[in-house]
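User: quick one, fold this
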Amino acid sequence: MRRAEFEIKDENEFEKLLKMANYGTLCLNDEPFCYAVPVNFIYYKKAIYFHGAMFGRKYELFLKNQNGSFSVVKEYSFIPSYFNSDLACPASQYFMSVFMEGKLLLVKENVKKAEVLDALMNKYQSEGEYLNISRNLEKYLGMLNKTAVYELQIASWSLKAKMGQNMKQEQFESMIDKLQKRGFSEDVSTVKMMKDLRHM
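Assistant:
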């Protein structure tokens, strides 16, 4: 990463971001271009899982090349230029992002498909109110046989946070004060993350 001050190597922060994110962007090779598509996903047992149909562009590209990348972004506060200057240049969006590369494979066993899809449902519909897939395999067999469940085995990851780490202490404290006074809902989580990263 070019700006080393924004890099985070803490695996706990990496996993926290993946668990809180609602979607990520899958990127596949489709020469002469790349094909990037947002997908719902679950970070489960140290891998990324998502699902789709057993046809279409994503599926066809996977069959040709199993290398893929995946990225996730969490937005924090927008920092208006007037927090720092009367010029436009200092305007900035605070965020945390992770970029991963790895090998894709299809989950073939229905038992594992069901396990992964149950984990996905628990993430997005944690209140339940549906028939558990693993415990009701016979009811779901038709759909499981038609559903592609992909696993991205993560070979490498790079976590970046732009949260004022490069500021001098006086500037940093001033930014915290301005965010607290503005009081937007996202400013609360931004201030907490800024302070946490400052003490890493």
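User: anything notable?
Assistant: The mean pLDDT is 95.
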